C-alpha cells in the first residue's frame, strides 16, 4: 500500500500533525453503505496492509462528504 497526499493543503497539514496516513480510495476493498451522517454518507471497507511476508485485513469507516470545502474546519474538529 502506498500512502500519499490528499491534494488539499489544510487536510495534508492535519494528517501530518496528527500522525495519520492518507490512503487513496482505490486501496479500499469491499466498500459497503452503512448510513447517512451530518457531513455525508458513511461506508465500511477493508484495506490490506502488507508487512513483510504477511497480509492483514483492516476494517475501516469511510465518509463521503457533502460540501467539504464549506465545512472543512467542522469536519476536522469531528475527526
UniProtKB/TrEMBL annotation:
Gene3D superfamilies: Phosphorylase Kinase, domain 1 (3.30.200.20). It comes from the Eukaryota. SUPFAM superfamilies: Protein kinase-like (PK-like). This is Protein kinase domain-containing protein.
